[in-house]
Specification:
heterodimer; A: 246 residues; alpha/beta; Rossmann fold; 4-stranded antiparallel beta sheet; 9 helices; 25% strand; globular; B: 259 residues; mainly alpha; 0% strand; elongated
């Protein structure tokens, strides 16, 4: 469904992505792992056109989106939704209004349909009945769930998760991990999850891509990754820092 | 010294370019995207209706003080009857639009920059983009339309309150004869003065809204960046108002010359 080819991106003098190549297949959950600051979220933002590549290309359903202008990306963004690290809820709107926002913008005007879809999306993320709450009254985990509900309410075919469990306690993390799996099963969405959390990666991934020094260093199943004898992979999995960092 | 001058020039050019692109994108949005009239009305309430008090107070006290000072000076020549017309023309042509705009820049410009800036650093604008909504369509266009409609009306209010205050101070407190005071206002104030006032109000509204939106959209570096955005919006808008007021005074005097 998504094809990344030789993607390069620099911020000023800092080269973050140095020729990333990765395919994401329809219906799979692909986890992109790597150390903090390795450029995982940068990849994700390219997939939805929030950042523009220096070179390389990104194909969504065989359509190259790299050269598209902001207004030309609308149809791509209806297909590919994104959950932001903080949830990125509109803080002046209630939960209900946050969820209704993408529907209204897609031209749905029937209040009954909007209410039904909002209730259904909230039920999917186990937050049924929380329509009237304001974002400021939600916990970190609830904000992410509402953010996810807002992402899926318009039924995208692919959902991008940017560090979905960062800042959550272990139980919150586990419930988000279950939610990612549940959504994939119930909605048959393609998922790309960016995380450095091993538990999230191993419990949600069909396939893991490991980003190292601006390139995809490894791709394989969670089992293949756990069994890898590569020192960079095993150091990452075991949390062993390199000598130069001590 | 030369390097610093060059750097500053480049910064100004860069900023002007960004402002130009935002204005261009706003016009594109007006052409290709639907106007969200509900948001325009909400913004008219925030920008226009809620700014009335501050603009009215500004106009009233400017008119009052200007009348008193003019009267003290003119009285020495026995020209008190001209006070009303001098104050009225000044309020229409300069004081109403410029001072009203400066107050709106402080109250509304800072609020626009802070709100959009907060949305920027908390990824709400990226979230909006990811949902297929152009931030200019949703955030800038409604504010721009509301400002362009509200600002001339606020200027009218500012000038009107200034004239009323001028009458109170001149006629009721400083005992200028009412008939020549009013006669001279009606004789020397023309519709051209009103056009100038409205044109300046419209243009200053344009300046305030685009500078404030740009400062908000350019906010970065977390809370510090959000704190910086409204301050810069007010400072840049105020300087732009003062400079453009000078330019507009000459330009509008050619279009609407004094009789």
């Amino acid at each position: 469904m998504i094809e990344i080819r030789e993607l390069k991106k620099s911020f000023g003098p800092q080269l973050v992505l140095d020729g990333v190549t990765l395919s994401i297949h329809e219906g799979e959950t692909c986890v992109v792992m790597g150390r903090s600051g390795s450029g995982k979220s940068v990849i994700l933002k390219h997939l939805i056109g929030l950042l523009h590549a220096d070179s390389g290309s990104i194909l969504v359903d065989d359509e190259d989106i790299t050269g598209l202008e902001e207004r030309e990306l609308t149809h791509i963004r209806r297909k590919v939704g994104m959950l932001f690290q903080s949830g990125a809820l509109f803080d002046s709107m209630s939960v209900e209004e946050n969820l209704a926002f993408p529907l209204l913008e897609q031209g749905v005007t029937d209040k009954k349909i909007i209410d039904e879809k909002v209730a259904e999306a909230l039920e999917l993320v186990s937050l049924a009945g929380e329509q009237k709450k304001m974002p400021e009254n939600l916990s970190g985990g609830m904000r992410k769930r509402v953010g996810l509900a807002r992402t899926i309410v318009g039924r995208p075919r692919c959902v991008l998760y940017d560090e979905p469990t960062t800042g959550l306690d272990p139980i919150g993390t586990d419930s988000i991990n279950h939610l990612i799996r549940r959504l994939q099963k119930r909605l048959a969405v393609t998922s790309v999850v960016v995380t450095h959390d091993l538990k999230t990666a191993f419990s949600t991934a069909d396939r893991i891509a490991f980003l190292h020094e601006g390139k995809i260093y490894f791709t394989g199943t969670p089992k293949e990754m756990q069994e890898s004898a590569d020192p960079i992979i095993s150091n990452f999995l075991n949390g062993i820092s390199e000598e130069s960092e001590l | 010294m030369l390097t610093r001058l060059g750097r500053s020039t480049l910064k100004v050019l860069d900023y002007t370019g960004s402002l130009g692109l935002l204005i261009k994108e706003t016009f594109t949005s007006l052409r290709v995207a639907p106007i969200r009239w509900r948001l325009v009305l909400e913004q008219m309430l925030t920008i226009g209706s809620n700014s009335q008090l501050i603009v009215a107070v500004t106009g009233a006290f400017t008119g009052a003080v200007f009348t008193a000072q003019t009267c003290f000076q003119f009285r020495t020549f026995g020209m008190e009857s001209a006070v009303g017309s001098v104050v009225t023309i000044s309020l229409f042509r300069e004081l109403g639009p410029a001072l009203g705009a400066l107050m709106v820049a402080g109250r509304v410009g800072s609020a626009i920059a802070a709100e959009i800036g907060t949305m920027k650093v908390t990824e709400q604008i990226d979230a909006m983009r990811s949902l297929g909504v152009h931030p200019v369509d949703y955030l800038v266009v409604p504010r721009a339309l509301a400002m362009l409609i509200s600002m001339p009306l606020l200027v009218v209010e500012c000038v009107a309150l200034g004239i009323i205050a001028s009458w109170i101070v001149g006629v009721q407190i400083l005992n200028i004869a009412e008939a020549p005071f009013i006669d001279n206002i009606l004789k020397y104030t023309t519709e051209r003065d009103m056009y100038i006032s409205l044109c300046k109000g419209f243009f200053f509204g344009f300046v305030i809204v685009f500078i404030s939106c740009l400062q908000g959209l350019n906010a970065k570096n977390g809370a510090a960046g959000v704190g910086q955005a409204p301050t810069s919006a007010v400072v840049i808008s105020s300087i732009a108002i003062l400079i453009f007021n000078f330019i507009l005074t000459f330009a509008l005097n050619i279009i609407f010359p004094m009789s």
